[in-house]
Amino acid sequence: MSGSAFTSPHIKHIDRRQFAKGIAVGLVAANIGALYTVFARWGIERGLSSPDLTVLRFGVAGVLMLPVFALAWRRDSAQITGRWKVWLMVALFAGTPFGLLIFGALQFAPPSHAAVFPFTAMSVMGMVLGALVLRDRMTLRRVVGIGVVLIGLVLVSGVDASSLTLRASLGDAMFLLAGTLWAGFGIVSRKHRLDPLLATSVISISALVTYVPAYFWFTGAKHLMNADRTVLLVEAVVQGGIAGVGTLYTYSKLVSLLGPSRAAVFPALAPGLAALMAWPVLGHVPVTMEAIGLLLVMLGLIVAVTASTATSDKT
Prior knowledge:
Mean pLDDT: 83
Distance between the termini: 14 Å
Number of strands: 0
Shape: globular
Low-confidence stretches: 1-14, 309-315
Number of helices: 17
Largest sheet: none
Strand content: under 5%
């Protein structure tokens, strides 16, 4: 296709519409990430543990996605069986291993680190892997934008040198690995042009049949049995329905619209948005540094997302 074809008014109009749709989906994804973070803290304050929240997320999402998977199998089972290696990679990157790392890291590192390290890995590794695997150009503007995002994350989280202990470093390593896996999920989704809804169902059901049985085997679900029913209902809706399904679908859709390098920046908005949401839910009033951090993250996101991605758009 000639270069002029890419610069016609019609194509430009379609690209602008796709870009605007991607921005909207990215903001929804970031708000979902903030919502489940706030309600995870809300649930823990009311007696639930990280494994309890994880099983609600995977269990509810897996059950909700069963009809979607069954319908996809009935329509075209070959797209699943014929690409089983791709679906296995997706399940490993965004399913049970990711959940175990991201929630397990909280046993070692303080919550403030959860607002920095996984999102750092998502943004940086999304850009690096995009360049290596998809030949997505790593421009100076994008590097600067992500750098500004990372500075904003540090301010939002309130991380200080005293929290960087040997024990915390293990949790930080787990956060970084979890973020890298999530970035890998975006790369695989883009490279193989995976359907966002089908990818969501495969990941959710893989976690349903792996993590959920292990949870009941090792814990006996004691906390869930003794938890307040209202708390369980709220967490099932937020963690399982909104986050479990919504996070995977919106991120997959975001990757299909903007590419993995751009998409990887949006989750960095979640900590700042969570600080705002925590005000009415948890009574936490955002401090000045949190507000400045959120503004920096938004500025860095604008710089990084509007950088040229001509190579990736043709991938």
